[in-house]
Write a structure and sequence with these properties.
Layout: H1 2-21, H2 27-42, E1 49-50, E2 57-64, E3 67-76, E4 88-95, E5 100-101
Antiparallel strand pairs: 1-3, 2-3, 3-4, 4-5
């Protein structure tokens, strides 16, 4: 019985390590997922936020346990000029399951 218990613990530990590493989630796919999620949330808002500005989109991404953090740059409303000082940034967490968390929504 103790041998079976230790085998179960090892399998659970191995699964936890694999999930924390999330090799199926690349930084590039996480960046695309974050941008798509942001755009889907704001597409029906007439004067909302978007990434149709110079330099907008993914700024950086970093692999973290159980996912990837993605920093995006975007603009909201009618901006007087397409300058970086009128842009905003947010950090999204793309989980190992591909869900996106932490982005502003309307």
């Amino acid at each position: 019985m103790p041998r079976k218990f230790s085998s179960i613990i090892l399998v659970i530990l191995a699964l936890a390590v694999i999930c924390a590493w999330s090799p199926w989630l690349t930084q590039a796919s996480a960046e695309v997922r974050a941008v798509d999620s942001f755009n889907e949330a704001w597409e029906s808002v007439a004067d909302g936020c978007g990434m149709n500005c110079k330099g907008c989109g993914t700024v950086s991404s970093q692999r973290v346990p159980f996912g990837v953090t993605v920093t995006i740059d975007y603009a909201c409303g009618l901006i007087p000029a397409d300058l970086p000082e009128y842009h905003q940034q947010s950090i999204a967490f793309v989980s190992m399951l591909g869900t996106v968390h932490g982005l502003p929504k309307p």
